[in-house]
Amino acid sequence: MAELDTVFEYYGLNDPFPTVWADNSVQESQFALVLGDYFNGSDDGTTDRTAVEYHATRALQRNFDMFVKMKSALDTAYKEMKKDFLQESKDWGVVDIDQLIDDANMKAAQIMKPIMDNKSRGDRLKATLSLIEKNRYLFDLPAALLDSIKRGDHDSLVRDYRRGRTLTEEIRTLPHSMELSDFLVQQRRVIERIWGEVEVVVEGYKRSIWKQLSQARPDDNYILYISILLELGVEDNPIWIWLQTLVDNLKNQMDDAFDDLNLSLQTLRKDVFNTSPTSTGIMAAYFLNAIKVPTLGGDILRDLPEIVRMWVMMKEVIEEVTKYFGKQIALFWECASGFLDGRTQTSLPVGQNGESKVHLNLSREEEVRIRSDARELVELYASRVADFFVRSVADSEKKAANVKHAKTMDSEFESDGNTPQAEHKVMNLRNTSTASLSASARLANSLKNDRIAEAQRQLDRPITPLPSVVGSSASPPSPGSEKNFELYAFLPPNANAIGTTFFLSQILNTMGSIASELAGLSISSRHIDVLRTMMGTIRERCVGAACLSWQQDAKRFNVIEDWTPISTRKCTRVPELFLQYQSVVLDGLQQLVFIPGAEKKSKVVVILPPSSKLVSNIKTQFANSIFLALNGLVKDAVTSDKTMNGINGSPTQATVPNSTIDRDIGTPLAPMESRLLLMICNIAELNGSIVSTLFERFSGLFSIQLTDNSNIIGDAMKQLDEQLFSTYTKKKRAKFTTIIRTGILKSGIRWSQLGKPTDVSQYIYHALLQLVLVHMEVSSVGPSLVKRVITDLLHHIVNTILESFRQIDKFSLGGMLQATIDVEFVNQKMTSYGTPDIESLYQTCYATIQDATDRSKMEVDVMTRQLEDMKKLLLKCHKQSRMEFLCFKVEKLVKD
Q1: Which of 66, 93, 112 lies at the terminal end of a domain, its last residue?
Q2: How many domains does the chain divide into?
């Protein structure tokens, strides 16, 4: 009963007969059921069954009527449903219900769906607006970044990007919860999409900055581009990439620039060949103009206009190219050294959260590579400059043809549309450390070619203008036929030495300044040696080219000779012009050898003292130039008038549009006799002061003595003088020989039967009159040579008289007196030109005549009277011929 009491208590039935049950059939029913379950499940024989039965009976009575009614209704409904409704074919009676429900749902959906959709859309819109409002900065970020890019506002772009990146990271790291799950997922999805657009914009901007950085020179604002990339964050090191790209760009630019320079050089050479005049008069005019450079001053032409134009254009281009790359290499090393020692990195950003800090330190391998790249840039620069000066014309043309072919192929390739678009190639930088031909190898080849050229120049050994020159009728060499000019691609065809030394000295000064500046860079000792080798190479090539022009000038120096004596001197203007010319050339060569105009921008010596071989070569070329100039002048002097006119033509037609050029270049050619006399005077002037002055100048400029050369040249000019003098007097001697021999031996005079003389013999008058003509010719051309020429011819005349009288077997008294008076007349008339040798000849003549005279029938008184008469006759003859032979008086002679 205790357990039953618990049940009663649970249902609120402590009273065994509660009155509330009468009104609560449900509780009764539940109690009955529970009670039944209790009895069915836990009757152990001790329960008060009377009370239970009482309550059960009472509950049954109270609900019997209701139960009967409900049971009847349920049975009836069950039968009907079993009969017509609860069938499998009708889905157990729910088909109609389902249909009704479906129809109701369809109509409800038609009515409620737009409402629900609008509500859902509104909810989403509200959520979106809430999301946008909360993250408005991120939603505006792509447009803001594009605007900053458009305006070039790098600072704003970096600031906005970093802020947006921070906000995005914060959203990505929000804590996850069930309540915020859907909203957070949606928010993150939207933010990721927006951030993806931001990354697209920034990556495009990075590519633009990478491109600008790859094209930035050391003097550009490359730090800005590197800073932007470090601020935005990049995987590759922009410092390393920029340095490597810069090296690669500089190497490619040097190749292209020097190839273009070579092409321009070929074009200029062709222009010179096509436009240079061939007229001797025009060449002489400009050559004379160049010689007068020191005295004229100002901006004047130092060569033919076409050649000067080539010099000027080549000088401007080579200086522009070399200055540019010298500056770029120096700037590169300045930038690179700043990164190597860490000075530049101190001002660079480390990126967001220090992500770019790893790019601010270069590895040991990278540092070694940067120094190697800097050295290779210097070596490549030195090699390309040396190549320009070392190439021959053939090599230059071959190189130009190869470049043109390569450009043509590239052009055709691009026209086919196969050229890939230029892209930023961070990981595909060309490895420049292993070139097919290193800079050192190219320099070695340059030096080898230079030695070959030097050997070729040595073939032009000194020319000794000895007997083979005098009397030769060969024409002077044509300047245009000089094949040695093909050894120097940078040398304009037929350029003179004055213009060559002037322009090359300026170019060398520029090269020396650049080399000095590059040598001051603390890259390595090796790059200094390369620069020294470069300067030595181009100096030797420039000196070689100048010497070649020097020798050509010497060969054609005769074109300025107009064979006109100047009033204040005893010769033509050639000796003075030769002094001026050689002085200008020697000064120019001194500038080439020592390069004093190069600015010393560092304490490192790049321009070493010239080698003894180089100075010795200049010494040899100096002697050559004198020999060659004399050779050409002598050939002109001894060439016949007919041949000379055929060679030189008529230079009087030449006109030169320059007021500083003399107009008297084209004066008519002088006769051969006059040219010989003038040439003798010129040699005397050259040997007397000009050459010695030049030797002193040479010794002062190059600190070398020329004693041996001076003696050789002095001896050679003495021989030349003797040969020219002999050439001039040869025909005149022959003429005097004919006159005298004919008069003594072939005129019909019978010296053994001749009577008392009445006058000086006609052959004597004839000979002396011819001597008067010679005196007039010599005094009008070379007054200083009068005594020398007349004395030499007088010696020949007296000697011819002696030789002729020796052929007379016997003189009569009259014949003896006639011969004696003839000799004495010459002796007395030509007293001013007497010499001991001539006086000895006179005495020998007298003795020869006396020895051949028959004295057997001579009386002393008769002889005395005859001699007195002879004195009177001589006095009479002198008076009668006073005017004819007035030129032989002492007071009329021109002293040396």
Answers
A1: 66
A2: 4
534 CB-near residues (< 8 Å, 6+ apart)? 382, 383, 385, 386, 443, 511, 515
Structure tokens at 438: 């290193």
With vertex at residue 803, the alpha carbon angle to CA 801 and CA 808, rounded to the nearest 5 degrees, is 90
Whether residues 537 and 493 share a domain: the answer is: yes
Q: Is the pLDDT of residue 123 over 70?
A: no
222 and 316 in a single domain? The answer is no
Vertex 676, ends 672 and 677: CA angle to 5°? 120
| Confidence (pLDDT) at 177 | 54
Residues 471 and 519 in one domain: yes
Question: Is the pLDDT confidence value at 471 over 50?
Answer: no
Which helix (H) or strand (E) segment holds residue 408: the answer is: helix 393-415
Q: Which residue has the higher pLDDT, 564 or 186?
A: 564
**CA–centroid distance for 713 within its chain:** 41
| Count of Cβ atoms closer than 10 Å to residue 598 Cβ | 19
Which pLDDT belongs to residue 17? 45
187 in any annotated domain: yes
Q: Are residues 369 and 492 in the same domain?
A: yes
Residue 712 shares a structural domain with residue 767:
no
With beta carbons less than 8 A apart as the criterion, state whether 265 and 554 touch.
no
Neighbours of 894 (CB within 10 A): 13
What are the tens digits of pLDDT across the range 284-323? 888 888 888 776 655 678 888 889 999 999 999 999 999 9
Does 290 lie in the same domain as 167? no
**pLDDT value for 250:** 92
Domain residue limits at 172: 135-235
Q: What is the pTM of this model?
A: 0.71
How big is the CA angle at 768 (ends 762 and 770), to the nearest 5 degrees? 105
pLDDT band with cut points at 50, 70 and 90 for residue 45: low
Q: How far apart are CA 670 and CA 678, in angstroms?
A: 10
Q: In Å, what is the CA distance from 455 to each residue of 95, 461, 494?
A: 121, 11, 21
DSSP secondary structure, 170-190, as one string: HHHTPPP-STTHHHHHHHHHH
Distance CA 581, CA 161 (A): 74
175 and 278 share a domain?
no
